[in-house]
Amino acid sequence: QVQLMESGGGSVQAGGSLRLSCVASTSNEYCMGWFRQAPGKDRDVIAVISPAGGTRSPDSMKGRFAISRDNLKSTIYLHMSSLNVEDTAKYFCGTYQRDAGPRCPLTPHAYNIWGPGTQVTVSG
After folding, report:
1. Are 46 and 94 in contact (CB under 8 A)?
2. Are 53 and 67 in contact (CB under 8 A)?
3. For 88-124, what is each residue's pLDDT tens digit?
């Protein structure tokens, strides 16, 4: 079973940027995505990406977040900019281990393998 490991989190000032990485333990030809969860809240989708590089994200996450994928490195990335205190959360990557075609699901519950997460804290 593939294992995922996130990195790149940390503390940043409001307005700053971060790039998160998620490495899979083996080549992973399935949908992958970035999600986040703040204390006491549900896990929310940020963006998902298909094996071919097609991306989807909810309208609320478009503009400041960009997902990308390097299949040779079995890695996905999340580029985050103009961060604000409301972006403070634990960020997770997940993979949907089924053939979803070009449209990866946006529902967090569809993703069945998760990394341990990386904390992002934005201070004002």
Report:
1. no
2. no
3. 999 999 999 988 877 999 999 999 999 999 999 999 8
